[in-house]
Amino acid sequence: MKKKIAVLAIDDPIGNYFIEELKNIFENTIDVDYYTPNMVNKPYISNVDLILYTDPSILIEIIDNIKCNAPILMMKRTISKEIIDALRLIEGGKSAYVVNINSFMANETLATLYRLGIKNLKLYPYYEGVVNPKVVDYIITPNEFACIKNLSGEVINIGNRLFDTSTILDIIAYLNIERKFAEKVIKKYASRVPTYWRGLKNTLYDKKMLLGQLEVLLNEFDNGIILCDEKGLIQLSNLKASEIFGLEKEYLEEEQLNQLVSRNKELAILESPEEVNGEMVKFNNKHLIISVKKVIYDEVYFGRLIILKYYNELLREQNQLHKKLVGKGYYSKYNFEDILGNHSKLVAAIEISKKVANSSSAVLLIGESGTGKELFAGAIHNYSERKNKPFIAINCATLPSNLLESELFGYEEGSFTGALKGGKMGVFEKASGGTLFLDEIGEIPLELQARLLRALEEKVIMKVGGDSIISVNVRIIAASNRDLEVMVNERTFRDDLYYRLNVFQINLPPLRAHKTDINLLIEHFFETFNDHRSIDEQFMAFCQNYDWPGNVRELRNVIEYMLKIDDGKFVVENLPASQKKRMGLKFQSKEDKAKFVLEILRDLSQNGLATGRRSIHEAFCKRYYKISESEIREILKQLADDGVIEIFPGRKGCRLKSSS
To answer: Which segments cross the bilayer (predicted)?
Structure first.
């Protein structure tokens, strides 16, 4: 079944233009219809997969007619290469009005021109209603608008603007278009708009230039590089490979790989039918790390790429890199040894984490706040082969959607007001080769989820305001304290993104599920704060009976608080007010303790349980804190003297008087 797109356009001509444009781009694999604010008896928009709009004002006018939960995407548009090239030829120092139907569209078109490198013209936005127009040399307009009749200057009609490449990529992601067809669409469309493809396209016309540039590039690598064709003929190599094999480059190239191996039997792994990833062999009395990658394109085998590295050089580089990363803060200090506890649920989570550490697939950590999700993420990273690569953590709940997008993917210079000169690298690029920890993943806005999904599936990103694709190699560890399955059912979280993240799900137990580890954790916090104290039995009873909604983080905060305000033994009277409130503990007088006893007596009576002194004492210690049986006896006697309860001899126990 074809996917359906609804386009919100200013008028019929623009709507028809977008229909034709989208059908040409996607070769009639989609159905497209348009809607305008001026339609008589505006129809409802339903049963569509994606809604595109050109201008926020149009969306506002039509929003009440949208009766479905389809994603809504504002189109980013650009200008053809031919127009840009023509505008660049205009003599510098000239001025021009950029005309469009309203302020938003005029300013957006103007910003696009500047972003595409039109720096030789002084540009001003123009739209109907501008007072006292300036005298300019040119009028740049996508159509012959009536309002330009009042202007003087040479008219340059740029025609309807094209979709920006980023919008095409977003449509592909939202509609889950099949990968091979998506690549075909991107390559074909890139020839029409100013993108990174142009330089590559021109280079491909001259094979000699391409080979020359490739040779220069290969020689920049510290690794030895050999490229063989499908028959095993060595076609390209670099100087480092010549050094490793002790052969001049001209002799190494044009030799058959099997001949090279026949002279050096220890290198038999080079002919392995399977790919090789970082295997160590001893060659010429040195340890050599070898990787062999198959070169496959469109399911056709073109040969193999061989990468060679001396082990001692690799070790030195990793140490240098780790020092740099530590200096920048792109690392994790956590290891599995830092996760304290002996409970079976916690041990099971650790064991699973170790088993999946070396996979490149995503990990989803599910656990309440304070259960140590970032600690687990860092430990998984440091237990993996990526441990000497960057580890970057970002909390998706701390930034608004527009800032989160630029934080994740980076941005180009001039892409928005306040953008830094030279642009900014996003965390996907910074973490490339390593691990990116996305905490509170459930808080990521729905409109950003499609971009995140594409980054995970295709391992490519595009900066905000950019038009070039950047390859990234990042292992994702995501975490959430929300039920993502519920969010998927509520359509607040994309199901395809959830399944992409939920390859390895690890559930972290709350502290209330492994209270046997509390003693160990308290001792650890004493060491952390370099202050050891004795602990009152009542305080330890509180720790075992309290539910710890803030988990290990809350326990740590309580211990730190008690160390600061309590000079001696830990006692329940000095607990923070929040914990006292949750447990209903005040410890101000005997009257407060009597109230607790009465509550227990009511509960025991209503449940048909024994109400003797020992039963009340046992329930009090379990529910609140340890108290002596003699103190319970005194409280019961006082309640009886006050006429609140009756005490009977033997097993009959105590009973509330009817007035209580």
So the answer is: none
